[in-house]
Design goal:
The chain is 36% helix and 16% strand. The chain is of the alpha/beta class and 387 residues long. It starts with 13 loop residues before the first strand and ends in a 5-residue tail after the last helix. The structure holds nicotinamide-adenine-dinucleotide and zinc ion.
Amino acid sequence: MIAGAGGQEMSRGKVLVTGGLGFIGLAVLKLLARHGYALRVLDSLSPQIHGQVPDVDRSLLAGLPLEVFRGDVVRRDHLAECLSGVDYVVHLAAETGTAQSMYGIAHYNRVNSQGTAELLDWMVNHRHSIKKLILTSSRSVYGEGAYRCPSCGIVTPDSRRAESLAQKHWEPLCPICRGELQLIATPESSRSCPASIYAATKLAQEDLTRIACGSAGIPYTILRLQNVYGPGQSLTNPYTGILSIFSTRIRQGLHLPIFEDGLESRDFVHVSDVARALVLCMETARVDGKTLNVGSGIPTSVLSVAEMLSQVVGGSSRTELTGQYRVGDIRHCYADISEIQAAIGFRPEISLEEGLADLAAWVTSQPLAEDGLDQANRILTERGLMK
Ligand SMILES: NC(=O)c1ccc[n+]([C@@H]2O[C@H](COP(=O)([O-])OP(=O)(O)OC[C@H]3O[C@@H](n4cnc5c(N)ncnc54)[C@H](O)[C@@H]3O)[C@@H](O)[C@H]2O)c1
Ligand SMILES: [Zn+2]
């Protein structure tokens, strides 16, 4: 244990949050503490996220009733130490870089798939009092989102072909008639069709959880998160978190490189909305056994979010359409959030404008990180994963 229990045992039970010192983990810990839970964290303090000398923003942890174990979710002995005596498990620990996963295949599989397998293996083979497991999956399991074809109805296209991308044909076409498509919100019932190794490991986490918890009678809920942003996102990890990466570049006066034609879109959801959805799901038996989307339910193009961010952070950075693309990236996906709304009454509360202002205020209060994006993109180009 590297940090001591900062508070007394509370009556609502103890929650183990794996990966709890990461971006979403910190927001979840704060909310769980407000709800009266005792907290335990298992986190490896991965250097890519926390720096070579781990530097967790201590102001984000101050006063929490928290035990922190530095350890690895793939290690049975570490898991055993952390799992005994807990009432809930929130499993966040993962490697999260989509592009990096395309060449870090065994490592991503080990941390994400094997880590989840070890966790479930312990839960199935030991006596425990765990009331529920929450797994954070990702919208990446869908691959391309859902679309409507005027002739063929609702379709889910395959990953875009290398030849189409090379010709700068960015929009996916109807898999049936090859006609143009209209984007629609992606519901949970949409087929899963991972386009990256990261996505494949998130889908493996889901399947392992459904099957193991289902057969052992352990309640669980799986949350498919869209693009989460907000205070606390790693400013040093160049492989994930487009808005924190861009914030650092804006502060350094560097241009913002935008892939494709900038009109690719994502569903940006503020971390406090995600933490609220997660804790509500942990506390609501009605969502046991369910897989639910968590997002804003609104698509925003990467070009426009970069321009909005540039305005709120300030400075003179310009967006630059590079026309490049990355293998494994999807074109569009935004969440249909009607199921989680109906199940627990969840609605996102933070608009993109408010959320970006909040992100900018936090980023500008942090030490200026080194920008690793150019270096990360060079690695991808050398490997033929960015063109
Ligand atoms: N941030 C997003 O936009 C987003 C979107 C969809 C899903 N998710 C999922 O949410 C979860 C949390 O993501 P995040 O954005 O907070 O990521 P993050 O990288 O900020 O946090 C992950 C944490 O896990 C820890 N970790 C990594 N490998 C570990 C290991 N082997 N053992 C123990 N700890 C380990 C890291 O040190 C880090 O503190 C992940 O499962 C991710 O796949 C995130
Ligand atoms: Zn069609």
